[in-house]
Specification:
Length: 279
Amino acid sequence: MKSLMIQGTSSGSGKTTLVAALCRIFVDKGFSVAPFKSQNMSNYSYKTKNFEISRAQAIQAIAARCEITPDLNPILLKPLGNYYSNVYLNGKMFKKMHATEYYQKFVQIQGLNIATKSLKSLQKKYDLVILEGAGSPTEINLEKYDIANMKMAEISHSLVLLITDIDRGGSFASIVGTMSLLEKKHRALINGFVINKFRGDINILKPGFKKIMELTKRPILGVIPMIDLHLPEEDSLGGNAKNITWNKKNLDKIENEIEKLSKLINSNLNIKQIERMIS
């Protein structure tokens, strides 16, 4: 059993798409692979007669060619506004909950137990589980309630890769800032960094790579160029999210996008080094 986790310096950094790409890359290498996100907040879901999970994990499962089950996303929060969400546990509607109740009375014990049970189930069934974090692992005001980032990395015994969106600017500062805010034990779990959404000549970045290595003692494992991607977005952060119908036409489109994305990631990330890390 092996585990790899993708965390980000912020929301929208590219965690979801990187997990999808890595799922396809490693399943093509002969691993049995499953994605996992302990807690996801999104109004865009994959729904069957029996369960409902975030569509991001469903798409990642398509990339991994694994069965889509509630274990892939054991906690789904569907925001209602005014700090309320509908909380789904193991694919089933549990209750409407205020953020205060969720964080102070639910997440640290019941929520963590549910997420851990699903994670352990996947780890028994698959050679490799690729976990996705949420937001940033250094939301220090919410750290004790965070069951989607470093707590899951510890439980799963994952090595962590940190991805950052350079198109927004400030990526090098985000990497160093994230590392500096992490507890020492969590900093030790991060094995390298990925630069996402880059436009231009990679040689311009190389002095930054050297500085990052000096400051963090971790390498930049790859630079992903900006691409025109048409996978359904997880939420409305990018302004393009919309509901989809899970018919053959749309599934074929998703499959084509996964293939395009995985080939791009494979050629721009040091996959051999990542494979060595998790072996």
